[in-house]
Design goal:
The protein has eight helices and seven strands, in the order E-H-E-H-E-H-E-H-E-H-E-H-H-E-H. The longest helix is centred in the middle third of the chain and has 28 residues. The termini are far apart. The chain has a seven-stranded parallel β-sheet with strand order 3-2-1-4-5-6-7, sandwiched between helices. The protein has one domain: Rossmann fold, CATH 3.40.50.720. The protein is of the alpha/beta class. Helix 2 links the parallel strand 2 and strand 3. It is globular. The structure holds nicotinamide-adenine-dinucleotide. The site of nicotinamide-adenine-dinucleotide has 30 residues, from helix 1 and helix 4.
Length: about 250
Amino acid sequence: MTELSLQGRTAVITGAASGIGRALALKAAAEGMALAICDTDAAGLEATADAARTAGAEVATAVLDVRDPAALAVFAGRTQGSIALVFANAGIARRRPISTQFLDELRLIFEINVLGAIATVQAFLPRLTAQAERSQVAITGSQASLVIFDGIGAYTASKHALLPLAEALAAELAETPVGVSLIAPGGVATAILGKGVASASPTVMPAERAADLIFAGVCRGGFLISTHADLAGMYVARSERLRAMLG
Ligand SMILES: NC(=O)c1ccc[n+]([C@@H]2O[C@H](COP(=O)([O-])OP(=O)(O)OC[C@H]3O[C@@H](n4cnc5c(N)ncnc54)[C@H](O)[C@@H]3O)[C@@H](O)[C@H]2O)c1
């Protein structure tokens, strides 16, 4: 496989107004890439764009909701240059028991985390498959794509759904210059975790460190990209629990 070239090419990032998305944008800028970034949060998006421009990047922004395929299509149509990376990163989490969770909230989580990610990929795929140069689509799952966390059942289910979807996509695109990654971050200090969580756990890492690890994984064309070494052990423990239940 040829090396994924970044310099002078474009990185697309959804959910770029904050957290991991903002850190990915600044990492891409530091790699000499142009940016096409979007979010629902206009002020946060502009702050990311300003920081990336200060770092020397050309930046195009779009205030949009990833639940809106038509807006994503316009965004994709306006994106300039050769696209090297598409980060379907926007996501939300809600800590609530499934037994009492409003169906509207469940729907929202799946619409943003699952359908929004796939809609993002679908909007950019025609461009990517038409390019001769290699590109990589990176869907942000979570450790919760592989293991179960208490109190966030809907989020965990939505992130689990992304794993088979990304695997199917990778198989479908195997003969094209487009690679697929599923990013599986562990705890990263961002707004999604809520106030106080960042300092509460020693395994929570800064978003900039997560972005470095994600970029390294994506550039080597890895499918499953983990930011934390404890994921493999947690996955084995979960698999063994399920295996034991099978008798
Ligand atoms: N922080 C963590 O510990 C962690 C761990 C695993 C996975 N993740 C995943 O990383 C991704 C980024 O999250 P983060 O931690 O940076 O959180 P964050 O809240 O800091 O950033 C998420 C961004 O997505 C945007 N967004 C939300 N809904 C949107 C929509 N419908 N359309 C467009 N943009 C929307 C938000 O406005 C925000 O800017 C998410 O998919 C999240 O599930 C985070």
